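Supplementary Text 2. Reproducibility record for the structural model of the 191-residue chain.

All settings were left at their defaults, and a single model was retained for analysis rather than an ensemble. We include the record here because the model underlies the residue-level annotations in Supplementary Table 4.
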Amino acid sequence: MPCNHDADWLVNIDGLYSYALALTRNPADAEDLVQETYVRAIRAMGWLRTGSNMKAWLFTILRNVWLNQLRKRRTGPQFIGIENCNGAADGIAEPSKDALNIYICKMEAERVQAAIQKLSVESREIILLREYEELSYREIASVLDCPVGTVMSRLARARTKLHTLLSETLELSTKGCGDCCATSSSALTRN
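Retained model, structure tokens:
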């Protein structure tokens, strides 16, 4: 039975863009990837059942499109650093905080984002899907087409690597930053 999710279509666009940006490291390529994801999803919408998890379905389509593009290139994608990313680490600070605390929070959020960009694609995508998109282990397993246990072990390795990268440059103190810095480094403390 077909499903009508008209209201849900755009709810996931920011998350899809962030995920695409983490995979491609290029804003233009990320936009193209999200667009192709929606084109394919619209074509296949008739097969989506009522009660299906549209978010996980869209993330799966996006990842499959990206993997297909990588296979076609075979020479490997060009990785370009992110100058002005509108990703999840931007705008974390609250307007009620003083300027110094806002600056400190922004700098720490940028360090976390930079550390995430240094991770392998596999580690970046698992961190992004769990910590920023807040997908469950089961949903991530569905997106990545692997067992839940594999998701858990990859996530543990990614968090350990992220912790190592951050320990070199980031003091893991939330003093003066309150919740915003705790949010930025939450990937380090979750089990």
